[in-house]
């Protein structure tokens, strides 16, 4: 269920224009991030969707429903809402908190409890351990997970998230973001997500609206487009001078980037391997096992004597899946102190990235030809 804002404005009682004449469409099943400097109207825009703030002009359509004049209380039951510091009721257990909307909708006790426990498990909380605790007895990250579970309880098609991960430390925050993306890949809600953090925006957004004062949309684009081709000076400043580096996380590996060293099989004899290496002029070869899975590598100087390639080869653990980002490939190379990383499709070997091929991929990434990663999650 998509969301459409048509000429939506909010003028506050004191005359402040929070948002002026905004047209914006949030695609069904996508996570759209509203990002921009403080006071630009992100929160105002989001809160008009569930009518916590009443728009002054314009129309808001969810799916096929014009909800501009819908009953706000009824509307909010169809829209999940996650906020910073969660807003859990402190005197209710986690189970009671997560069951709030199902209870309001009149679900039965058993049904509600089953749904609540299933959701707690989905967001990584053990119902038996955490279900009967009070919010004050959970960590910040656990409270945030409970907040997400509560917002999803009645399976609403739309989720609004207002800086949901900003109250926890950076490490927990990254973990929550990754968990949340995995969850979104299965539930596919239409999500409007507010943040002022561009790093968070490019990590989690399918699409990003960069806003300036008065709710003006300066650019509406995918993370890779935004970082590769900022529409104007405002966006370029906002995404930062290191946008080339940020872009690594959202740029995928292109088949053209791969190098193809000679391939040997573990059961081959060393004499044949040596001959093959000398014929190709290469200094080393990739070694695959009998199922064509990555085994390791063999350098020319180890291809001496008799015996099999498998026995002489060095094992190699540095590999990335083909939908990995360039950033992940680079990090893997550094972590293993390796001169190359293998790129695999499932178990199948596709080719390798070396420092040279990675470098040209980086240049391509920064210059703007972009095969995007399947999801920024793999960053
Ligand atoms: N109740 C209000 N009365 C008057 N002005 C308001 C009110 N609420 C917000 N504003 C103003 O509307 C503008 C947009 O505010 P909004 O909260 O939407 O910004 P934001 O982008 O979410 O900012 P932040 O990142 O700081 O939360 C700001 O200039 C703000 O001062």
TrEMBL record:
Pfam families: ABC_tran (PF00005), CBS (PF00571). Residues 3-239 form the ABC transporter domain. The keyword Protein transport does not apply. The keyword ATP-binding applies. Keywords: ATP-binding, CBS domain, Nucleotide-binding, Transport. InterPro entries: AAA+_ATPase, ABC_transporter-like_ATP-bd, ABC_transporter-like_CS, CBS_dom, CBS_dom_sf, P-loop_NTPase. Residues 313-372 form the CBS domain. GO terms for molecular function: ATP binding. Belongs to the ABC transporter superfamily. This is ATP-binding cassette domain-containing protein. The lineage of its organism: Bacteria, Bacillati, Actinomycetota, Actinomycetes, Geodermatophilales.
């Amino acid at each position: 269920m998509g969301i459409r804002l048509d000429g939506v404005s909010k003028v506050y009682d004191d005359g402040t224009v929070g948002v002026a004449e905004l047209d914006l469409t949030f695609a069904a099943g996508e996570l759209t991030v509203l990002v921009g400097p403080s006071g630009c109207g992100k929160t105002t825009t989001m809160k008009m969707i569930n009518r916590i703030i009443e728009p002054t002009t314009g129309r808001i359509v969810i799916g096929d429903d014009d909800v501009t004049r819908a009953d706000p209380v009824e509307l909010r039951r169809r829209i999940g809402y996650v906020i910073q510091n969660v807003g859990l009721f402190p005197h209710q257990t986690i189970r009671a908190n997560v069951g709030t909307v199902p209870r309001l909708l009149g679900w039965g006790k058993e049904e509600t409890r089953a749904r609540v426990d299933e959701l707690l498990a989905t967001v990584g909380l053990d119902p038996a351990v955490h279900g009967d605790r009070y919010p004050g007895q959970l960590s910040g990250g656990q409270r945030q997970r409970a907040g997400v579970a509560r917002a999803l309880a009645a399976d609403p098609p739309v989720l609004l998230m207002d800086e949901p991960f900003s109250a926890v430390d950076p490490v927990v925050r990254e973990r929550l973001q990754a968990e949340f993306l995995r969850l979104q890949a299965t539930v596919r809600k239409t999500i409007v997500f507010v943040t002022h953090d561009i790093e968070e925006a490019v990590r989690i957004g399918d699409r990003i609206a960069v806003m300036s004062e008065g709710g003006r949309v300066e650019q509406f684009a995918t993370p890779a487009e935004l970082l590769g081709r900022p529409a104007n000076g405002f966006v370029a400043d906002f995404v930062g001078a290191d946008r080339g580096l940020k872009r690594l996380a959202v740029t995928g590996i292109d088949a053209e980037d791969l190098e193809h060293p000679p391939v040997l099989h573990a059961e081959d004899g060393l004499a044949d391997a040596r001959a093959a290496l000398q014929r190709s002029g290469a200094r080393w070869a990739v070694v695959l096992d009998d199922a064509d899975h990555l085994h390791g590598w063999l350098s020319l100087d180890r291809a001496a004597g008799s015996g099999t390639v498998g026995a002489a080869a060095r094992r190699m653990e540095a590999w990335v899946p083909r939908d990995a980002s360039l950033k992940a490939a680079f990090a893997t190379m550094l972590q293993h102190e390796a001169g190359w990383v293998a790129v695999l499709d499932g178990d199948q070997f596709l080719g390798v990235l070396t420092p040279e091929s990675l470098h040209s991929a980086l240049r391509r990434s920064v210059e703007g030809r972009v095969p995007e990663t399947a999801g920024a999650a793999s960053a």
